[in-house]
Design brief:
The longest helix is centred in the C-terminal third of the chain and has 31 residues, at about 275-305. The strands form three sheets. A nine-stranded mixed β-sheet has the order 5-4-1-6-11-8-12-10-9. Strands 2-3 form a two-stranded antiparallel ribbon. It has a two-stranded antiparallel ribbon with strand order 7-13. It is α/β, with parallel strands linked by helices. The chain has helices at about 35-45, 60-65, 70-80, 85-90, 110-115, 115-120, 140-150, 210-220, 230-235, 255-270, 275-305; strands spanning about 5-10, 30, 35, 50-55, 95-100, 125-130, 130-135, 155-160, 170-180, 180-190, 200-210, 240-245, 250-255. About 40% of the residues lie in helices and about 25% in strands.
């Protein structure tokens, strides 16, 4: 069955970016001239998704406003003759059919997905987590959709990580694989490196069959009080095949400050209007900082010698 619906959970508090996220949703933090969530929405639409459910929480109204019409702004742009920008702003509202559900309590990703049960119905659906921006020739969601449509199974996006990083992720215990596709035996949420079954980490892209809701209903909250999607997929894997795809693409962890800055710099360098000038600035900045370091080292050496 074709995947036409996607869920984007956006109810998190964004504590890693405080104080900025006290009043601005982390999903609206800009990377060059687009909010982070727009990169996720663009991937979904490029994959063939038609209906997008954004799961919001308290204080997330700027996301809803972003995908709504803005008559005052549109009138201003039209008056100023900024027609290209006007068209871009108007198109935001018509890129897909946008739907919203509010997660009233921060009870975990599994709970957020369960809030979408009525939206999903009996169709397979995509899940795209907003912290993961992935640049690829074929959208990662489309890569997973192709496997799901061929096998009829749920598919998880994975990436190999360093051993020191496995405790930050859900990790798959693989059975066998063909090319870049693994059959999943088990899933472990944030294991210590010594007990991790592999270094194949679950990254924020999924195609999930609607049978997942049965398992979400059955699992209990973890010690942190949250219902984990990984735990539901673990139960699901005992009854039906789940596959994992080592996807093609470069991933940026936009939920991490350094990852966010890396994405900002690299996307700015690729900008047709900014790239050349920004690259020149970075080169000048590097030379300037290098000269400063040389002066500091010289001063330290001179002090040590005297």
């Amino acid at each position: 069955m074709k995947v036409k619906k996607a869920i984007i959970p956006a109810a998190g508090l964004g504590t890693r970016f405080l104080p900025a996220t006290k009043s601005l949703p982390k999903e609206m933090l800009p990377i060059v001239d687009k909010p982070t969530i727009q990169y996720i929405v663009d991937e979904a639409i490029s994959s063939g998704i038609e209906d997008i459910l954004i799961i919001t929480g308290r204080g997330k109204w700027p996301i809803v406003d972003f995908y709504d019409r803005s008559p005052e702004l549109e009138a201003h742009l039209k008056k100023k003759g900024l027609l290209d920008l006007l068209e871009k702003i108007k198109n935001l509202s018509y890129m897909a059919n946008f739907h919203y559900i509010r997660q009233n309590e921060p009870l975990g990703l599994g709970h957020a997905i369960y809030c979408a049960k009525s939206f999903v119905g009996q169709e397979p659906f995509a899940v795209l987590l907003g912290d993961d921006i992935i640049k690829s020739n074929i959208p990662v969601t489309k890569q997973l959709m192709n496997i799901s449509e061929e096998t009829g199974s749920s598919v998880i996006g994975i990436q190999e990580v360093q051993e020191s990083e496995v405790s930050k992720y859900g990790i798959i215990d693989p059975l066998d694989h063909q090319g870049n596709i693994w059959r999943v035996k088990n899933l472990v949420e944030k294991p210590i490196p010594a007990k991790a079954p592999s270094r194949l980490a679950i990254i924020g892209r999924y195609i999930i069959n609607p049978s997942i809701f049965k398992y979400l209903e059955e699992i209990s909250a973890g010690t942190d009080g949250e219902i984990q999607l990984t735990d539901a997929l673990k139960s699901m894997s005992k009854d039906e095949n789940i596959y994992a795809c080592l996807f093609e693409g470069k991933r940026y962890d936009a939920g991490d400050k350094l990852g966010y800055l890396k994405a900002t710099v690299e996307f700015a360098l690729e900008s047709p209007s900014l790239g050349e000038r920004f690259e020149k600035y970075l080169e000048e900045l590097y030379l300037e900082r290098n000269e400063i370091r040389k002066r500091v080292v010289k001063q330290e050496n001179d002090s040590a010698a005297s």
